[in-house]
Amino acid sequence: VQLQASGGGVVQPGGSLRLSCEVSGVRSNYENIGWFLQAPGKEREWVSYLRLSDGGTVYEDSVKGRFTISADKVKRPITVYLQMDNLKPEETGVYYCGAGLDLKATIQSNGRLRVDPLSFPYWGQGTEVTVSS
Fold first, then answer.
1. Looking at residue 17, what is its pLDDT?
2. HEC string of the chain?
3. Is residue 77 within 8 Å of residue 23, measured between CB atoms?
4. Statement: residue 18 has pLDDT above 90
5. What's the pLDDT tens digit per position in 36-82?
6. pLDDT category, 30, cuts 50, 70, 90?
């Protein structure tokens, strides 16, 4: 599976960006495409994922209502988007898209869902987002 992320840039707090992830070589209709954020000095953390099979979407709690993941399965390569609205400075970092079939998800002690990045064996190169005034 090959993935290529794009669309990053510099935006003020409260602003919007739309990231794109072009996906080719999908192994199965059950492939999941996820977006992750790696903030400076931190580990890669899951943001959202979409199931290519039925278009189902799942979001990390902190982005619910502000981020929207979607897919254009007619385009070649398939493109998965992450529309990010009302961005916050703490959402600065490199955004990666990944592909995985069998996802490992857990409920953390704070009650939030976390999807293990190791569930995604294939990654794009990342696109940088800076949220700053």
1. 98
2. CEEEEECCEEECCCCCEEEEEEEECCCCCCCEEEEEEECCCCCEEEEEEEECCCCCEEECHHHCCCEEEEEECCCCCEEEEEEECCCCHHHCEEEEEEEECCCCEEECCCCCEEECHHHCCEECCCEEEEECC
3. yes
4. yes
5. 999 999 999 999 999 999 999 999 999 999 999 999 999 889 999 99
6. confident
| Residue with token string 């981020």 | 67
Tokens read off for 13: 């707090």
Q: Cα separation of 6 and 24, whole Å? A: 15
Given a contact cutoff of 8 angstroms between Cβ atoms, the answer to whether 50 and 80 are in contact is yes
Distances (CA, A) of 3 to 15, 61, 126: 26, 25, 9
**What value, to the nearest 5°, has the Cα angle with vertex 32 and ends 28 and 38?**
140
36: tokens are 């992750």
d(CA 24, CA 73): 11
pLDDT in tens, 4-13: 999 999 999 9
Is residue 45 within 8 Å of residue 38, measured between CB atoms?
A: yes
